[in-house]
Amino acid sequence: MRLVWLIARKYFFSRKNPSAINVITAISLTGYAVGALALLVLLSALNGFETAIFGGYFNGDADLKVVAKQGKVFTLSEAQLQKIAKLPGFVAHYQCLEDKAIVKFNDKQTVALVKGVDSGIYKTLIIDSLVVTGSKVLQKQPQLEPALGQIPEALDLLNFTWLSEGIVYKLNVGSENTKLELLVPDRSSSSVSQSVLNQEDVYVAGMVKLGEDLNESTIIVPLDVAKSLFGRDNEISSLNIKGNPNKLESLKDGIQSIVGQSFEVLDRREQHKTMYKMFNTEKWVSFALLAFILMLISFNLFGSIRMMVIDKQQDLKMLNSLGMHAVNIRSIFIFEGQLVSFVGTSVGLLLGAVLVLLQQEYGFVKTQSTFAMAYPVKLVLTDVLLVFGLNTVLAGLSSWFASLRKFNV
């Protein structure tokens, strides 16, 4: 086998008598290099967008979320909440009541998703990452004020809200402590026209950055405000739980056994299943298209190996006379194809990794949006191995099929 490898290496590195075979081989090598570079850059760009898009979800979502399989709201007893709090791996939780409402500011108004949360949100989420500007206090809580900032005494009794970026721009809210009106139809009204409205006034405390589908029209208010606005007493839309990262699976199973089968316990990915599914579909379709192009490039390798088999007939006769079997002779050309793939792919991956790392560090390529920013990229080792493995398999198959020609030895 060592002899087979040495002969394949000699054919690869030999530059005597340049011919069409050498040109086609060089084209194949270049094709693998360019293909590997393009595929690695594509996957790194998609990884970067995934991090940028779902980073907001990480800030705004708890590790686990309990929701009802049917209906928008549900109730959990105090006994159930205490049992959940005693589970191994449990850290903190907050209750959330959410529904749509009209948000009015001066002469502007829009429909928004109003999320009412209790004080447990401070222990469950990373508030410093969630609230990007303004005050981090929704309700006056003396034990939190030293860390989150004081509320002016004149505003002690007011209800506050955090607005998502989209709401800030839609309503053109220019400062903190600005008054907003929340309006929804009164659920208890018997009027057919539902002209009776519940109203709650809230004052802007700060702005939050959420996930892509929530960032356009979400506001966060104290839970009591949401219950009063929507006419709910002990009902909530979800129970959001922070857990020990090493015990999330067992914690999820424990919560499920406590709440029963009429509820779902969702992890971060399951909370936004549609978005993750859509993104992964786009990622793998893009990968499949470039993989198809690499397969076409492999036809060049097939042609060069087949022509080399014909060109080296005299050498093969001599090797056969010296006792080398046909299987080993075919292995020469398979190794030759693998060498072309290895060198081309290695060069492409090296150049691709350098480009991605330079973009990460210096951000040469900018987006064309209103707020210019560097295209996000993220280099992942598994992507490098995936591209290398794909090229190796394609080159191996091309070389094997090309070497199946019957040798005239």
Write a structural description:
- The chain is α+β, with helices and mostly antiparallel strands.
- The protein folds into two domains: 2-57 and 275-402, no CATH class; 62-270, no CATH class.
- The chain contains 14 helices and ten strands.
- The chain has a six-stranded mixed β-barrel.
- Helix 2 runs antiparallel to helix 11 and helix 2 runs antiparallel to helix 14 (381-402).
- Mean pLDDT is 82; it is low at 141-156.
Beta-strand share of residues: 15-25%
Strand order of the largest sheet: 2-3-8-5-7-6
- Ends: how far apart? 20 Å
**Major pleated sheet:** 6 strands, mixed, barrel
Helix-strand string: HHEHEEHHEHEHEEEHEHEHHHHH
Number of helices: 14
Mean of residue pLDDT values = 82
- Poorly predicted regions are 141-156
Structure class? alpha+beta
The gyration radius over C-alpha positions equals 31 Å
Shape label: elongated
- Helical coverage, percent range: 40-55%
E-strand count: 10
State the domain count.
2
Structure described in brief:
Helix content is 52%, strand content 18%. By secondary structure, the chain is an alpha+beta fold. Mean pLDDT is 82; it is low at 141-156.
Q: Could you outline the blueprint of secondary structure elements for this entry?
A:
Blueprint: H1 2-13, H2 20-60, E1 64-68, H3 78-85, E2 90-105, E3 108-117, H4 121-124, H5 127-130, E4 131-134, H6 145-148, E5 160-164, H7 165-171, E6 179-185, E7 197-208, E8 218-222, H8 223-230, E9 238-243, H9 248-259, E10 263-266, H10 268-271, H11 273-311, H12 313-321, H13 326-362, H14 381-402
Parallel strand pairs: 3-8, 5-7
Antiparallel strand pairs: 1-9, 1-10, 2-3, 2-6, 2-9, 4-7, 5-8, 6-7
